[in-house]
């Protein structure tokens, strides 16, 4: 899942459309927080797929996946989908940190 900590968005008709639907979703409780969804899902809880719902992150992921599907169907084969194994976010990171990890914890050194 993409994280929504910071988004840099170029102003285009496509991004305006994504933001419009994200805002409309944010105003609809069933969209922003579906019944039965949970913000914190642990592996031990064996939460059913789709029930871990990070509100803003989930909105953008759903909208972006829908856009990627439409672009693929329209013949755009140069698209590097965010869930593709070749996408930079899915490649080995130089530093891997986890949620709630304190800065005093050791972070793996960069190696070239």
From TrEMBL:
Chain intervals for the UniProt region annotation (Disordered): 78-112
Superkingdom: Eukaryota
Protein name, entry field: Uncharacterized protein
Species whose genome carries this gene: Ditylenchus dipsaci
């Amino acid at each position: 899942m993409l994280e929504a900590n910071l988004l840099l968005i170029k102003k285009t008709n496509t991004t305006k459309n994504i933001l419009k639907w994200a805002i409309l979703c944010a105003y609809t409780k069933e969209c922003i927080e579906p019944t039965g969804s949970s913000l914190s899902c642990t592996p031990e809880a064996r939460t059913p797929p789709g029930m871990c719902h990070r509100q803003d992150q989930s909105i953008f992921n759903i909208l972006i996946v829908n856009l990627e599907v439409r672009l693929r169907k329209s013949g755009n084969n140069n698209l590097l989908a965010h869930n593709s194994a070749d996408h930079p976010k899915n490649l080995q990171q130089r530093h891997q940190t986890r949620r709630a990890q304190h800065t005093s914890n050791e972070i793996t050194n960069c190696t070239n």
